[in-house]
Every structure is written in structure tokens, then in C-alpha cells.
What we know:
The chain is of the alpha/beta class.
Amino acid sequence: MLKFWKKKPPAEDKAAAAPEAPAAEPAVPPPAQTPLAEAAAVEATGRGIADSAGDHAADGAAASGDPADAAAQADDDAPARRGWRDRLAGSGFARGLASIFKRHPVLDEAFLDELETCLLTADVGVATTTAIVDELRRRVGKREFAEAGALLDALRAELVARLKPVEQPLDVGAGGRKPFVILTVGVNGVGKTTTIGKLAHRYKGEFRSVLLAAGDTFRAAAVEQLQTWGTRNAVSVIAQGSGADSASVIFDALQTARSRGTDVLIADTAGRLHTQGGLMDELAKIRRVLGKLDPEAPHEVLLVIDGTTGQNAISQVRTFREAIGVTGLVVTKLDGTAKGGVVFALAREFGLPIRYVGLGERATDLRVFDAAAFVDGLLPASLGRG
Ligand SMILES: Nc1nc2c(ncn2[C@@H]2O[C@H](COP(=O)(O)OP(=O)(O)OP(=O)(O)O)[C@@H](O)[C@H]2O)c(=O)[nH]1
Ligand SMILES: [Mg+2]
């Protein structure tokens, strides 16, 4: 497992050293080597296929000589070195906790009441908040804590324990599945397409070949957005004309990925609400159609949740789990003013693996979820500071 925040792992080092340049092997062979893939895909749909970056996979953004791209890349690398605390410190949750510890050097009932309010306000959820505060109250009553520092340690342990079970990183190399198919789903605007761009960046940095499928056929702009990420990461994007059938695009992409021997296929989908029955049915269709080529695909259904959503995230998970099954979560937008507590509520309610968290908008702002790093990012580093 990659632990960026503790020590720079080799993969991250590689990514930083050769950010946009093609890896040991090109991400995608030139189309001339894959006529069957293109032909098969065209045949399957009767429509032309736009393979936006495939022809230029080796001409990555950095290799393009475009100063704007180079600058963006330089920008991208800097935040990767910034810690979780740096990113989470601005959240209401972190600021609330810091303020309580500052204002209450004495561990009394007022301290615990404020802590309770802070956890509830941050969307930790009633059940988890009550359990944590009751446990701390019991220990304060028994005078286990002489000072706030000791309670801070206990609170940290309580919070980490609740997230540890969902700290289950995604291993796209597991089981030798090729391509490993990831389907990203979620409501509108949660960060699906951005997450796909970040994942492409990450997997390329791990020297894996990646293909993207523009399965959000709802808006023309969605295809362009994905293609921009594809170009930045020198990764091919399989897309069709606007109004195309999403399942057909993703099916084509899987055929192409198989014939190219691609390591990871990541499919985008349109944002949808649980009330949009037709769109929810479309997800079941995608699974059905992929199953014709690979009964196990998609190998990962990543539900993307906006970290600022609050308790509504719970009903989102429920709905998508029923519609297509969900195997992992990505919680985005935990930087800035996000409350972040919803991560605890999700962990308690579903126990679904939290694969990644989004700590910003850049390619390097996706972290493998780590319970301790996340909690440490929220809690004051030490008392009197933070
Ligand atoms: N601050 C912050 N912004 C993010 C993060 N992830 C995504 N965003 C922003 O959220 C906005 C929506 O992101 P998209 O990736 O377009 O979301 P989407 O789910 O694909 O949206 P639809 O396709 O319209 O459903 C964009 O402005 C992103 O830059 C994150 O981790 N932190
Ligand atoms: Mg999108």
C-alpha cells in the first residue's frame, strides 16, 4: 500500500521524476498496431469512434513543449508534497476541534458538550458521535485523563478505530485481470470526471497502461472534459458522437482495451439522481453489456461522493448500491471548507471500502485513503497550536 504522507513511495517518485513522459512502455500502442480493435469497435456500434489521445499517446502534455502544460505540471507536483493537515486544516471540522482544545484547557462537561456539537456539525452522525462522546465522558469521569493532551490521544484513537475497517486500498493489479475495469458513478457534480483524470495520472505514474471511456454521453462538454484529462496524462479516450449509448461506448472501450492489452480501463458515466429511473437503469445495462465480454467486469464500481454533501451521502450510497452495486467509495472535496465528518458516517453505515479521497482539483490531489493520516489532518497537531 502506498503511504504518501509518511514517505514518498517509489511510484510517486517515478511520477514526479517523469510526470507526463511515456512510461517504460507506451500507454497505448499506436493505432497502426491495433486495427482490429478499431474495426471491432466500429462494427459493434455502426458509429465512428473518436480515440482522442491514442494517436498522440507518446506526445504527452509535457512532451508537447507547451509551456502552459509544463506550468500546469509543475503546479501539479507541488501540492502532492503538501500534507493532509495542510489540506484539511481549513475544514470546519478541523477548525472546530482546534478551537475547542484551545478554549477548554480543563476537561469538563462544557468541553464534552462542545466536542459533541462539533462532531454533529461536521456530519459525523448521531450514532457515532454519541458513542465517541459517551466513551470519553466515561473515561473523564474515571479521571483517566489528567489533561487535554491525553484526551486528544484518546479521541484520535476513537476516530481512527472507526475508519480503520474501511481503509482498504484498491489494487488494480490484483488477480491479473487485464484490463482491470473501473466504472465511476455518482450524482451530478461530485467529481467523477476529475477523479478519473487523477486516477489516470496515478496509474500512469505506476507504469500501467490506461484507457478512458467517455461514458457520460449526456453532455458534449463531458466528453471534452475527459479528453482534456486524457491529453494531459497522455492517455487514450474512447468516445462516440453526442447522444450515443453509454453502454455501447464502454463496451467498445473494453473491446479496445482487451485487444491493446491495456492494464486499466476507467469508464466515466453521467451524473444521475436516484429519482431519474431511466438513468439508473442505464447503469444496470452497462453492467449487463460489459458482462458479455467479461463476466467479472466491472471489477470495481467506484461511487464518488462529494465530501461537502452531508448526510445526503447516505441515501446516495443506498441508491447506487441497489442500482448497480458499489465496491468502493471516493470522497472528494475534503479540502477547503468541507466538513469531512461524512466519512465517519459512511464507514459506520455501510462499511464499504473508501479507496481514495480528493484533497483538491489537481491531478496529484487524490490520496489513497489512510485512516490515521485523515484523522491526524483533522485534529490539532498539539495543544496550543493548530
Ligand atoms: N476542491 C476540490 N474540487 C474538486 C475535487 N474533485 C472535483 N472537484 C471539482 O468539482 C467540480 C465538478 O467536478 P467534475 O469532475 O466535473 O464532477 P462530475 O461528477 O464529473 O460532474 P458531472 O459529470 O456533471 O456529474 C469541478 O470544478 C472539479 O474541479 C476535490 O477533491 N477538491
Ligand atoms: Mg463528469
